Amino acid sequence: MSENNTQFKKAVEGILFAMGKSVGIDRIAEALEISKEDVIKICDDLAAEYEADGRGFRVMRIEDAYQMCSAKEVYEYLIRIAKQPRKYVLTDTVLETLSIIAYKQPVTKAEIEKIRGVSSDHAVSKLVDFELVEEVGRMDAPGRPMLFGTTEEFLRVFGVTSLEELPSISPVQIEEYRQQAENEVALEVDV
Fold first, then answer.
1. What is the CATH number of domain 2-79?
2. How far apart are CA 175 and CA 172, in angstroms?
3. In Å, how far from its chain's centre is CA 70?
């Protein structure tokens, strides 16, 4: 591959630029007729070059895909051009719902509501509108309820390349939450 490395880099740049969204490693490999490992090396090399050169764009890995995006240093200039960048207003309710989806996905609205104890229709709708959550399928159960999961936009917004990078909850915190839930249930029974 080394003699064609420059040509492959140009091809990857063109693909990522033209697509404007993430492109799977396997799709790039298939298009260039090279291995996935070579695609990863090329994309990682491009990302390092852009970073070292201080370019206004970057190549970012998102799970098993790559995307060309603007460097965060140029964000203030993009705001001036776009006038009104998309703002997410993540209320406590919406953020709580997003957390449940992120950690338990795929998950139905009924499961979210069972955890939260209240209706989650509005929060889930907001998350779908913000493109942070999407329908990922249907459960094989009566009524075939929708299953929800996070999107690539979720990963971009929260600055993680995969769900494995989400913080984990310590066993001590889990035990504290379990104890709090049991105490709340005991209070409700007494009332």
1. 1.10.10.10
2. 5
3. 17
